[in-house]
Amino acid sequence: MANSAIVITPEQLLEHWQGHRRVTRRLIAAFPADQFETFTIGGLRPFSGLVQEMLAIGVPSLKGFVHRDWTTSFEPRALSKDAALKEWDAQTDEINALFPKIRAEQWQEHDKAFGMYEGPTFELLWYALDNEIHHRGQAYVYFRALGIEPPPFYDRS
């Protein structure tokens, strides 16, 4: 495939991702602490479990792209709302540090994330974003079921 046009720069993609992360962070912050690890609907995981998965994909994916090290494993654990926010913020800084280290030509190179997901770097990164958006959507349902008005999904500032 010829690269005849650049639709989005890596810097714009990083800002787009961080915009989504800001929305997700606001959801974490607004979620009732007493329900964070327990509230569930229809057998879905509580919001703490969804956040754990998001944390287990974003930075570990970037480490895989940059260092070619995909040995990270996901181990579910108890995660309070305060601990989730602290880890979320730490990963935000880590994302900002790692993202620019992805080489320009690497976006089109194939990789095998976590030993099982194959594709070009840009698609593997999109998966991390799509996964976050998907789980954030579940959190919006939780907010509504709890009778709470959630932060707006469209405000990425």
Question: What order do the helices and strands come in, and which of them pair?
Answer:
Elements: H1 10-30, H2 47-67, H3 81-98, E1 110-113, E2 117-120, H4 121-145
Helix pairs in contact: 1-3, 1-4, 2-3, 2-4
* Inertia-based shape: globular
> How is the biggest beta sheet arranged?
2 strands, antiparallel
Domain module count: 1
N-to-C CA distance: 35 Å
Percent range for β-strand residues: 5-15%
Helix share bin? 40-55%
Structural class by sheet pairing and helices: mainly alpha
The CATH homologous superfamily name equals: dinb family like domain
CATH class wording: Mainly Alpha
Gyration radius from CA atoms, angstroms: 16 Å
Strand neighbour order, sheet with most strands: 1-2
The tally of beta strands, per DSSP, is 2
**What are the secondary-structure elements, in order, as H or E?**
HHHEEH
> From the coordinates shown, what is the CATH architecture?
Up-down Bundle
Number of helices: 4
Please mark out the parts with pLDDT under 50 across 5 or more consecutive residues, or reply none. none
CATH topology: Four Helix Bundle (Hemerythrin (Met), subunit A)
- Look at the structure and give the mean pLDDT: 93
